Amino acid sequence: MDAEQLDRIFKALADPTRRRIIDRLREQPAQSLFQICAGSVAEGEKALSRQAISQHLDMLEKAELLQVSWSAQTKIHSLDLKPLREAADIWLNKHL
């Protein structure tokens, strides 16, 4: 993992909305944008537009924290913990 990838991961984790999306995908893997939006409303979180959540998902995807697959015409998002574990091994653990 290079320094740029490490920066993308920590930048993605810096936002509380993206951390909530990660938590939601960890609890219930393989969700569509609609399911993620509906889950945030059901949990009483501050309402965000589909476009805003889509932008957060894009940031998580660029950080390689999400795997994307397609079911018909629906994009399905799943959490990929491998880059997060690598970031912890490379940077966090050396400071703990």
TrEMBL record:
<dbReference type="InterPro" id="IPR011991">
    <property type="entry name" value="ArsR-like_HTH"/>
</dbReference>
<dbReference type="InterPro" id="IPR001845">
    <property type="entry name" value="HTH_ArsR_DNA-bd_dom"/>
</dbReference>
<dbReference type="InterPro" id="IPR036390">
    <property type="entry name" value="WH_DNA-bd_sf"/>
</dbReference>
<dbReference type="GO" id="GO:0003700">
    <property type="term" value="F:DNA-binding transcription factor activity"/>
</dbReference>
<dbReference type="Pfam" id="PF12840">
    <property type="entry name" value="HTH_20"/>
</dbReference>
<feature type="domain" description="HTH arsR-type">
    <location>
        <begin position="1"/>
        <end position="96"/>
    </location>
</feature>
<dbReference type="InterPro" id="IPR036388">
    <property type="entry name" value="WH-like_DNA-bd_sf"/>
</dbReference>
<protein>
    <submittedName>
        <fullName>Winged helix-turn-helix transcriptional regulator</fullName>
    </submittedName>
</protein>
